[in-house]
Amino acid sequence: MSSSTWRQYAAGIALGAAVAAGITAWGPRQQAIAVPSAATPQDMSNMFRSVAAQTMPSIVSIETTTRPRQVDRGRTPFDDEGNPFREFFRDDPRFREFFENPRRMMTPRRSGAGSGFIIDPSGIIMTNNHVVQGADEVKVRLHDGREFLATDIKTDPRTDVAVLRIKDAGQLQAIKLGDSRAMQVGDWVLAFGSPFGLEMTVTQGIISGTSRHRGITDREDFLQTDAAINPGNSGGPLVNLKGEVIGINTAIASTSGGYDGVGFAIPTHIASWVGDQLVKSGQVQRGYLGTSIAAVDAETAKQFDVKVRDGVIVKQVMPDSPADKAGLESGDVIRKLNDQVVVDPPSLQGIVERLAIGKSYKLEVIREGKPVTLNVTIEELPKSIAASSAEPESPSEGTQFDKLGLELSVLTPNLAKQLGIPNATGVVVTGVKDGSLAALAGIDNGDVIERVGNSPVKTTEEFQAAVEKLSLKEGIVIHLRNAEGKRYVILRDAGE
User: Fold this and answer.
1) Is 493 a catalytic residue?
2) 160 is catalytic
Protein backbone atom coordinates (compact mmCIF):
# COMPACT_ATOMS: atom_id res chain seq x y z
CA MET A 1 0.00 0.00 0.00
CA SER A 2 1.53 3.38 -1.01
CA SER A 3 1.85 6.30 1.40
CA SER A 4 -0.90 8.26 -0.34
CA THR A 5 -3.21 5.25 -0.37
CA TRP A 6 -2.52 4.64 3.31
CA ARG A 7 -3.35 8.26 4.16
CA GLN A 8 -6.62 8.00 2.21
CA TYR A 9 -7.44 4.77 4.03
CA ALA A 10 -6.67 6.30 7.44
CA ALA A 11 -8.70 9.40 6.57
CA GLY A 12 -11.61 7.15 5.65
CA ILE A 13 -11.45 5.40 9.00
CA ALA A 14 -11.31 8.75 10.81
CA LEU A 15 -14.30 10.05 8.85
CA GLY A 16 -16.25 6.88 9.59
CA ALA A 17 -15.52 7.27 13.30
CA ALA A 18 -16.54 10.91 13.18
CA VAL A 19 -19.88 10.11 11.51
CA ALA A 20 -20.52 7.41 14.12
CA ALA A 21 -19.91 10.03 16.80
CA GLY A 22 -22.54 12.34 15.29
CA ILE A 23 -20.32 14.47 13.05
CA THR A 24 -21.41 14.95 9.44
CA ALA A 25 -19.56 16.31 6.42
CA TRP A 26 -21.71 19.46 6.65
CA GLY A 27 -20.92 20.26 10.25
CA PRO A 28 -20.86 18.82 13.77
CA ARG A 29 -24.01 18.13 15.72
CA GLN A 30 -21.86 18.10 18.87
CA GLN A 31 -18.28 18.86 19.88
CA ALA A 32 -15.94 17.01 17.51
CA ILE A 33 -13.21 14.74 18.85
CA ALA A 34 -9.74 15.73 17.67
CA VAL A 35 -8.32 12.90 15.54
CA PRO A 36 -4.49 12.89 15.30
CA SER A 37 -2.98 12.58 11.86
CA ALA A 38 -2.15 9.00 10.89
CA ALA A 39 1.44 7.84 10.54
CA THR A 40 2.47 5.88 7.48
CA PRO A 41 3.14 2.13 7.79
CA GLN A 42 6.85 2.86 7.37
CA ASP A 43 6.73 5.41 10.19
CA MET A 44 5.25 2.80 12.53
CA SER A 45 7.71 0.17 11.35
CA ASN A 46 10.64 2.51 11.98
CA MET A 47 9.34 3.29 15.47
CA PHE A 48 8.96 -0.38 16.42
CA ARG A 49 12.38 -1.14 14.94
CA SER A 50 13.99 1.68 16.94
CA VAL A 51 12.44 0.60 20.25
CA ALA A 52 13.39 -3.04 19.62
CA ALA A 53 17.00 -2.17 18.81
CA GLN A 54 17.22 0.03 21.89
CA THR A 55 15.67 -2.59 24.19
CA MET A 56 17.15 -5.92 23.03
CA PRO A 57 20.59 -5.51 24.67
CA SER A 58 18.85 -5.26 28.06
CA ILE A 59 16.78 -8.45 27.67
CA VAL A 60 17.97 -11.75 29.16
CA SER A 61 16.81 -15.36 28.92
CA ILE A 62 16.59 -17.35 32.14
CA GLU A 63 16.91 -21.11 32.55
CA THR A 64 16.31 -22.77 35.92
CA THR A 65 17.14 -26.21 37.27
CA THR A 66 15.71 -27.90 40.36
CA ARG A 67 17.56 -30.96 41.61
CA PRO A 68 15.74 -34.16 42.66
CA ARG A 69 14.60 -34.13 46.27
CA GLN A 70 13.26 -36.65 48.72
CA VAL A 71 9.70 -35.89 49.73
CA ASP A 72 7.04 -37.55 51.84
CA ARG A 73 4.72 -39.48 49.51
CA GLY A 74 2.23 -40.44 52.20
CA ARG A 75 1.16 -43.92 53.21
CA THR A 76 1.69 -46.76 50.68
CA PRO A 77 0.30 -50.31 50.55
CA PHE A 78 3.68 -51.54 51.79
CA ASP A 79 3.11 -49.77 55.13
CA ASP A 80 0.28 -52.19 55.89
CA GLU A 81 1.48 -55.14 57.95
CA GLY A 82 -1.55 -57.10 56.76
CA ASN A 83 -0.74 -56.68 53.08
CA PRO A 84 -0.32 -60.25 51.68
CA PHE A 85 2.19 -59.01 49.11
CA ARG A 86 4.43 -57.31 51.69
CA GLU A 87 6.56 -60.40 52.36
CA PHE A 88 6.48 -61.39 48.69
CA PHE A 89 8.14 -58.15 47.58
CA ARG A 90 10.35 -57.52 50.65
CA ASP A 91 13.44 -59.28 49.25
CA ASP A 92 13.04 -57.98 45.68
CA PRO A 93 15.79 -55.31 45.16
CA ARG A 94 13.52 -53.40 42.83
CA PHE A 95 11.15 -52.69 45.74
CA ARG A 96 13.73 -52.38 48.52
CA GLU A 97 13.33 -48.59 48.65
CA PHE A 98 9.66 -48.97 49.56
CA PHE A 99 10.58 -50.95 52.67
CA GLU A 100 13.66 -48.99 53.68
CA ASN A 101 11.98 -45.59 53.20
CA PRO A 102 8.30 -46.46 52.85
CA ARG A 103 7.09 -42.86 52.90
CA ARG A 104 9.86 -41.15 50.94
CA MET A 105 10.24 -40.69 47.22
CA MET A 106 12.48 -38.73 44.88
CA THR A 107 11.06 -35.90 42.83
CA PRO A 108 12.28 -35.73 39.22
CA ARG A 109 14.85 -33.20 38.07
CA ARG A 110 12.96 -30.18 36.74
CA SER A 111 13.92 -27.36 34.41
CA GLY A 112 12.17 -24.11 33.56
CA ALA A 113 12.55 -21.05 31.40
CA GLY A 114 11.61 -17.42 31.48
CA SER A 115 12.84 -13.95 30.73
CA GLY A 116 14.15 -10.88 32.52
CA PHE A 117 15.67 -7.45 31.94
CA ILE A 118 18.67 -5.55 33.25
CA ILE A 119 17.80 -2.68 35.59
CA ASP A 120 21.34 -1.78 36.69
CA PRO A 121 24.57 -1.83 34.63
CA SER A 122 26.35 -3.69 37.45
CA GLY A 123 24.30 -6.80 36.67
CA ILE A 124 21.02 -6.52 38.56
CA ILE A 125 18.12 -8.18 36.74
CA MET A 126 14.39 -8.06 37.35
CA THR A 127 12.04 -10.96 36.59
CA ASN A 128 9.06 -12.84 38.07
CA ASN A 129 9.19 -14.68 41.36
CA HIS A 130 7.53 -17.71 39.76
CA VAL A 131 10.34 -17.94 37.18
CA VAL A 132 13.06 -18.51 39.80
CA GLN A 133 11.15 -19.74 42.86
CA GLY A 134 12.56 -22.95 44.32
CA ALA A 135 15.31 -23.28 41.69
CA ASP A 136 18.71 -24.66 42.70
CA GLU A 137 20.44 -23.10 39.71
CA VAL A 138 19.48 -20.02 37.71
CA LYS A 139 21.35 -19.46 34.46
CA VAL A 140 21.18 -16.08 32.74
CA ARG A 141 21.93 -15.72 29.04
CA LEU A 142 22.68 -12.20 27.80
CA HIS A 143 21.85 -10.70 24.44
CA ASP A 144 25.44 -11.28 23.27
CA GLY A 145 25.23 -15.01 24.11
CA ARG A 146 27.30 -14.99 27.31
CA GLU A 147 25.99 -17.09 30.19
CA PHE A 148 26.23 -16.52 33.94
CA LEU A 149 24.94 -18.20 37.06
CA ALA A 150 22.73 -15.85 39.06
CA THR A 151 23.55 -15.07 42.69
CA ASP A 152 21.85 -13.16 45.46
CA ILE A 153 18.29 -13.98 44.35
CA LYS A 154 15.64 -12.00 46.24
CA THR A 155 11.92 -12.53 45.75
CA ASP A 156 8.57 -11.09 46.79
CA PRO A 157 5.80 -13.70 46.28
CA ARG A 158 3.08 -11.18 47.19
CA THR A 159 3.69 -9.30 43.94
CA ASP A 160 5.51 -12.05 41.97
CA VAL A 161 8.56 -9.79 41.57
CA ALA A 162 12.16 -11.00 41.87
CA VAL A 163 15.62 -9.47 41.43
CA LEU A 164 18.87 -11.33 40.94
CA ARG A 165 22.48 -10.47 40.29
CA ILE A 166 25.15 -11.71 37.90
CA LYS A 167 28.84 -10.97 38.49
CA ASP A 168 31.85 -10.26 36.29
CA ALA A 169 29.75 -9.40 33.23
CA GLY A 170 31.26 -5.96 32.83
CA GLN A 171 29.23 -2.81 32.30
CA LEU A 172 25.82 -3.84 30.94
CA GLN A 173 23.10 -1.83 29.24
CA ALA A 174 20.22 -1.23 31.63
CA ILE A 175 16.71 -0.34 30.53
CA LYS A 176 14.83 2.63 31.96
CA LEU A 177 11.74 2.04 34.10
CA GLY A 178 8.84 4.24 33.04
CA ASP A 179 5.65 5.37 34.78
CA SER A 180 2.98 2.70 34.33
CA ARG A 181 0.35 5.04 35.79
CA ALA A 182 0.69 7.25 32.72
CA MET A 183 -0.40 4.42 30.42
CA GLN A 184 -3.91 4.54 29.02
CA VAL A 185 -6.13 2.08 27.19
CA GLY A 186 -5.15 2.14 23.53
CA ASP A 187 -1.46 2.98 24.04
CA TRP A 188 0.96 0.95 21.89
CA VAL A 189 3.28 -1.44 23.73
CA LEU A 190 5.90 -4.07 22.84
CA ALA A 191 6.41 -7.31 24.79
CA PHE A 192 9.91 -8.84 24.94
CA GLY A 193 10.99 -12.29 26.04
CA SER A 194 11.69 -15.88 25.06
CA PRO A 195 8.33 -17.56 24.31
CA PHE A 196 8.65 -21.33 23.84
CA GLY A 197 12.45 -20.93 24.08
CA LEU A 198 12.59 -18.56 21.09
CA GLU A 199 15.00 -16.02 22.52
CA MET A 200 14.88 -12.28 21.92
CA THR A 201 11.33 -12.20 20.59
CA VAL A 202 9.24 -9.03 20.38
CA THR A 203 5.48 -8.73 19.84
CA GLN A 204 3.33 -5.63 19.58
CA GLY A 205 -0.10 -4.65 20.80
CA ILE A 206 -1.91 -2.10 22.90
CA ILE A 207 -2.90 -1.61 26.52
CA SER A 208 -6.29 -3.32 26.67
CA GLY A 209 -7.13 -2.45 30.26
CA THR A 210 -5.71 -1.24 33.55
CA SER A 211 -6.14 -2.16 37.23
CA ARG A 212 -7.01 -5.78 36.47
CA HIS A 213 -7.31 -8.35 39.27
CA ARG A 214 -7.07 -12.07 38.54
CA GLY A 215 -6.35 -13.66 41.93
CA ILE A 216 -2.84 -14.64 40.82
CA THR A 217 -0.95 -12.79 43.57
CA ASP A 218 -1.83 -11.13 46.88
CA ARG A 219 -1.09 -7.66 45.52
CA GLU A 220 -2.47 -7.03 42.04
CA ASP A 221 -3.02 -4.04 39.80
CA PHE A 222 -2.23 -5.61 36.42
CA LEU A 223 -1.99 -3.94 33.05
CA GLN A 224 -3.87 -5.96 30.42
CA THR A 225 -2.46 -6.17 26.90
CA ASP A 226 -3.17 -7.93 23.63
CA ALA A 227 0.55 -8.08 22.77
CA ALA A 228 1.29 -11.78 22.37
CA ILE A 229 2.54 -13.29 25.66
CA ASN A 230 3.26 -17.02 25.82
CA PRO A 231 5.07 -19.47 28.15
CA GLY A 232 8.67 -18.24 28.39
CA ASN A 233 7.65 -14.57 28.22
CA SER A 234 7.22 -14.45 32.00
CA GLY A 235 9.58 -11.94 33.57
CA GLY A 236 10.22 -10.07 30.33
CA PRO A 237 9.40 -6.38 29.98
CA LEU A 238 6.35 -4.68 28.51
CA VAL A 239 7.73 -1.52 26.92
CA ASN A 240 6.15 1.73 25.74
CA LEU A 241 7.15 3.51 22.53
CA LYS A 242 9.70 5.60 24.45
CA GLY A 243 11.63 2.39 25.15
CA GLU A 244 10.68 2.42 28.87
CA VAL A 245 9.53 -0.60 30.84
CA ILE A 246 5.98 -0.07 32.07
CA GLY A 247 5.26 -3.65 33.14
CA ILE A 248 6.61 -7.17 33.74
CA ASN A 249 4.94 -9.83 31.58
CA THR A 250 3.43 -12.20 34.13
CA ALA A 251 0.38 -14.21 33.12
CA ILE A 252 -2.11 -15.03 30.39
CA ALA A 253 -5.82 -15.79 30.35
CA SER A 254 -6.10 -18.72 28.00
CA THR A 255 -8.24 -21.77 27.27
CA SER A 256 -5.45 -23.36 25.26
CA GLY A 257 -2.41 -22.62 27.43
CA GLY A 258 -1.08 -20.26 24.75
CA TYR A 259 -1.81 -16.80 23.40
CA ASP A 260 -5.52 -15.97 23.36
CA GLY A 261 -5.16 -12.20 23.17
CA VAL A 262 -5.31 -11.50 26.93
CA GLY A 263 -2.05 -11.01 28.80
CA PHE A 264 -1.22 -9.38 32.13
CA ALA A 265 1.79 -7.42 33.32
CA ILE A 266 2.82 -6.17 36.77
CA PRO A 267 2.93 -2.36 36.45
CA THR A 268 6.24 -0.69 37.17
CA HIS A 269 4.80 1.59 39.83
CA ILE A 270 4.56 -1.61 41.91
CA ALA A 271 7.55 -3.51 40.51
CA SER A 272 10.05 -0.66 40.88
CA TRP A 273 9.03 0.01 44.49
CA VAL A 274 9.34 -3.70 45.35
CA GLY A 275 12.58 -4.06 43.39
CA ASP A 276 14.24 -1.13 45.17
CA GLN A 277 13.56 -2.69 48.57
CA LEU A 278 14.71 -6.14 47.48
CA VAL A 279 17.99 -4.69 46.22
CA LYS A 280 18.57 -2.60 49.35
CA SER A 281 17.47 -4.99 52.11
CA GLY A 282 16.41 -8.28 50.53
CA GLN A 283 12.84 -7.93 51.77
CA VAL A 284 9.81 -5.71 51.35
CA GLN A 285 8.49 -3.65 54.25
CA ARG A 286 4.83 -2.75 53.85
CA GLY A 287 2.54 -0.44 55.75
CA TYR A 288 -0.51 -1.88 57.52
CA LEU A 289 -3.88 -0.30 58.26
CA GLY A 290 -5.85 -3.30 59.56
CA THR A 291 -9.15 -3.26 57.71
CA SER A 292 -11.24 -5.40 55.44
CA ILE A 293 -12.65 -3.18 52.70
CA ALA A 294 -15.06 -3.28 49.79
CA ALA A 295 -15.56 -1.23 46.65
CA VAL A 296 -18.38 1.29 46.49
CA ASP A 297 -20.62 -0.20 43.82
CA ALA A 298 -24.08 0.93 42.74
CA GLU A 299 -25.75 -1.05 45.52
CA THR A 300 -23.62 0.09 48.43
CA ALA A 301 -23.41 3.67 47.16
CA LYS A 302 -27.15 3.99 47.74
CA GLN A 303 -26.89 2.47 51.22
CA PHE A 304 -24.08 4.76 52.37
CA ASP A 305 -25.17 7.86 50.44
CA VAL A 306 -21.97 8.24 48.43
CA LYS A 307 -21.07 8.05 44.76
CA VAL A 308 -19.80 4.94 42.97
CA ARG A 309 -15.98 4.68 43.24
CA ASP A 310 -16.00 7.58 45.70
CA GLY A 311 -13.82 5.76 48.23
CA VAL A 312 -14.00 2.30 49.80
CA ILE A 313 -16.27 0.95 52.52
CA VAL A 314 -14.77 -0.45 55.70
CA LYS A 315 -16.28 -3.89 56.23
CA GLN A 316 -14.19 -4.90 59.23
CA VAL A 317 -11.68 -3.30 61.59
CA MET A 318 -9.05 -5.61 63.10
CA PRO A 319 -8.66 -5.27 66.89
CA ASP A 320 -5.61 -3.32 68.09
CA SER A 321 -4.75 -2.44 64.48
CA PRO A 322 -3.75 1.07 63.38
CA ALA A 323 -7.29 1.54 62.04
CA ASP A 324 -8.79 0.48 65.38
CA LYS A 325 -6.47 2.76 67.35
CA ALA A 326 -7.37 5.65 65.03
CA GLY A 327 -11.10 5.17 65.69
CA LEU A 328 -12.06 3.85 62.26
CA GLU A 329 -15.40 2.00 62.27
CA SER A 330 -17.10 -0.53 60.03
CA GLY A 331 -19.37 1.31 57.63
CA ASP A 332 -16.98 4.25 57.32
CA VAL A 333 -16.22 5.25 53.74
CA ILE A 334 -12.51 6.02 53.29
CA ARG A 335 -12.10 8.75 50.67
CA LYS A 336 -8.55 10.02 51.22
CA LEU A 337 -5.39 8.92 53.00
CA ASN A 338 -2.40 11.26 53.19
CA ASP A 339 -4.29 13.57 50.78
CA GLN A 340 -4.32 10.81 48.15
CA VAL A 341 -7.71 9.99 46.64
CA VAL A 342 -9.07 6.48 47.19
CA VAL A 343 -11.30 5.07 44.44
CA ASP A 344 -11.21 1.31 45.01
CA PRO A 345 -9.57 -1.31 47.28
CA PRO A 346 -6.36 -1.65 45.19
CA SER A 347 -5.81 2.11 45.30
CA LEU A 348 -6.06 2.14 49.11
CA GLN A 349 -3.76 -0.89 49.38
CA GLY A 350 -1.25 0.82 47.11
CA ILE A 351 -1.31 3.97 49.24
CA VAL A 352 -1.07 2.18 52.61
CA GLU A 353 1.77 -0.18 51.77
CA ARG A 354 4.09 2.66 50.69
CA LEU A 355 3.56 4.87 53.75
CA ALA A 356 6.36 5.25 56.29
CA ILE A 357 6.17 2.91 59.28
CA GLY A 358 5.55 4.74 62.56
CA LYS A 359 4.41 7.98 60.93
CA SER A 360 0.96 9.53 61.41
CA TYR A 361 -1.23 10.42 58.42
CA LYS A 362 -4.54 12.17 57.87
CA LEU A 363 -7.42 9.79 57.07
CA GLU A 364 -10.60 11.32 55.61
CA VAL A 365 -13.83 9.32 55.87
CA ILE A 366 -17.58 9.68 55.53
CA ARG A 367 -19.43 8.42 58.61
CA GLU A 368 -23.22 8.39 58.63
CA GLY A 369 -23.21 10.92 55.81
CA LYS A 370 -20.85 13.36 57.49
CA PRO A 371 -17.12 13.97 56.86
CA VAL A 372 -14.79 12.88 59.65
CA THR A 373 -11.01 13.33 59.80
CA LEU A 374 -8.89 10.85 61.75
CA ASN A 375 -5.16 10.47 62.31
CA VAL A 376 -3.72 7.00 61.78
CA THR A 377 -0.22 5.82 62.64
CA ILE A 378 0.93 3.21 60.14
CA GLU A 379 2.49 -0.02 61.40
CA GLU A 380 4.42 -2.71 59.56
CA LEU A 381 2.33 -5.46 57.99
CA PRO A 382 2.46 -8.43 60.40
CA LYS A 383 3.61 -11.78 59.06
CA SER A 384 0.47 -13.30 60.46
CA ILE A 385 -2.61 -11.89 62.12
CA ALA A 386 -3.95 -14.17 64.85
CA ALA A 387 -7.64 -14.09 65.56
CA SER A 388 -8.95 -15.12 68.93
CA SER A 389 -12.27 -16.84 69.38
CA ALA A 390 -14.48 -17.86 72.26
CA GLU A 391 -17.70 -19.74 72.76
CA PRO A 392 -20.52 -17.60 74.16
CA GLU A 393 -22.23 -18.48 77.37
CA SER A 394 -25.76 -19.88 77.08
CA PRO A 395 -28.22 -17.07 77.77
CA SER A 396 -31.34 -17.86 79.71
CA GLU A 397 -33.65 -16.41 77.11
CA GLY A 398 -33.57 -14.89 73.66
CA THR A 399 -35.82 -13.16 71.17
CA GLN A 400 -36.61 -14.75 67.81
CA PHE A 401 -36.99 -12.62 64.69
CA ASP A 402 -38.38 -15.00 62.08
CA LYS A 403 -38.16 -12.51 59.21
CA LEU A 404 -34.38 -12.14 59.48
CA GLY A 405 -33.64 -15.57 60.89
CA LEU A 406 -31.90 -14.21 63.98
CA GLU A 407 -32.13 -15.17 67.63
CA LEU A 408 -30.76 -12.42 69.85
CA SER A 409 -29.99 -11.86 73.49
CA VAL A 410 -28.75 -9.07 75.73
CA LEU A 411 -24.97 -8.73 75.79
CA THR A 412 -23.87 -9.02 79.41
CA PRO A 413 -20.39 -7.89 80.55
CA ASN A 414 -19.44 -11.50 81.31
CA LEU A 415 -20.57 -12.67 77.87
CA ALA A 416 -18.71 -9.82 76.15
CA LYS A 417 -15.56 -10.86 78.00
CA GLN A 418 -15.98 -14.47 76.89
CA LEU A 419 -16.40 -13.33 73.32
CA GLY A 420 -13.08 -11.47 73.50
CA ILE A 421 -14.66 -8.02 73.14
CA PRO A 422 -15.06 -6.76 76.72
CA ASN A 423 -15.84 -3.17 75.71
CA ALA A 424 -18.52 -4.02 73.16
CA THR A 425 -22.12 -2.85 73.44
CA GLY A 426 -25.11 -4.18 71.54
CA VAL A 427 -27.06 -7.42 71.25
CA VAL A 428 -25.47 -10.83 70.72
CA VAL A 429 -26.51 -13.33 68.06
CA THR A 430 -27.33 -16.65 69.74
CA GLY A 431 -28.95 -18.39 66.78
CA VAL A 432 -29.06 -18.11 62.97
CA LYS A 433 -31.70 -19.98 60.98
CA ASP A 434 -30.37 -21.99 58.03
CA GLY A 435 -31.19 -20.37 54.68
CA SER A 436 -32.39 -17.14 56.29
CA LEU A 437 -31.44 -13.62 55.23
CA ALA A 438 -29.04 -13.44 58.18
CA ALA A 439 -27.39 -16.74 57.25
CA LEU A 440 -27.02 -15.70 53.61
CA ALA A 441 -25.39 -12.45 54.73
CA GLY A 442 -22.81 -14.35 56.81
CA ILE A 443 -23.96 -13.47 60.33
CA ASP A 444 -22.71 -16.06 62.86
CA ASN A 445 -23.41 -17.08 66.42
CA GLY A 446 -21.38 -14.88 68.76
CA ASP A 447 -21.52 -11.82 66.51
CA VAL A 448 -22.51 -8.66 68.36
CA ILE A 449 -24.84 -6.25 66.56
CA GLU A 450 -23.83 -2.71 67.49
CA ARG A 451 -25.90 -0.68 65.04
CA VAL A 452 -28.80 -1.09 62.62
CA GLY A 453 -28.35 1.51 59.89
CA ASN A 454 -27.32 4.60 61.85
CA SER A 455 -29.11 3.56 65.06
CA PRO A 456 -27.10 2.10 67.97
CA VAL A 457 -28.85 -0.84 69.65
CA LYS A 458 -28.32 -2.16 73.19
CA THR A 459 -31.45 -4.23 73.69
CA THR A 460 -33.49 -6.60 71.56
CA GLU A 461 -36.35 -4.08 71.69
CA GLU A 462 -34.13 -1.36 70.24
CA PHE A 463 -32.98 -3.77 67.55
CA GLN A 464 -36.55 -4.64 66.59
CA ALA A 465 -37.60 -0.98 66.52
CA ALA A 466 -34.61 -0.04 64.33
CA VAL A 467 -35.35 -2.85 61.88
CA GLU A 468 -39.03 -1.90 61.58
CA LYS A 469 -38.08 1.65 60.55
CA LEU A 470 -36.13 0.38 57.55
CA SER A 471 -36.99 -1.52 54.39
CA LEU A 472 -35.67 -4.99 53.54
CA LYS A 473 -36.45 -4.26 49.91
CA GLU A 474 -33.97 -1.38 49.90
CA GLY A 475 -31.60 -3.18 52.26
CA ILE A 476 -30.78 -2.93 55.95
CA VAL A 477 -27.18 -2.34 57.02
CA ILE A 478 -26.22 -4.34 60.13
CA HIS A 479 -22.99 -3.34 61.90
CA LEU A 480 -21.33 -6.30 63.62
CA ARG A 481 -18.41 -6.93 65.93
CA ASN A 482 -16.60 -10.02 67.15
CA ALA A 483 -13.11 -10.98 68.35
CA GLU A 484 -11.81 -10.64 64.78
CA GLY A 485 -12.93 -7.02 64.49
CA LYS A 486 -15.78 -4.94 63.10
CA ARG A 487 -17.69 -5.41 59.86
CA TYR A 488 -21.06 -4.78 58.27
CA VAL A 489 -23.51 -6.79 56.21
CA ILE A 490 -26.58 -5.81 54.18
CA LEU A 491 -29.80 -7.76 54.64
CA ARG A 492 -32.08 -7.54 51.63
CA ASP A 493 -35.27 -9.26 50.54
CA ALA A 494 -36.02 -8.28 46.94
CA GLY A 495 -39.39 -10.00 47.12
CA GLU A 496 -40.62 -8.07 50.12
Assistant:
1) no
2) yes
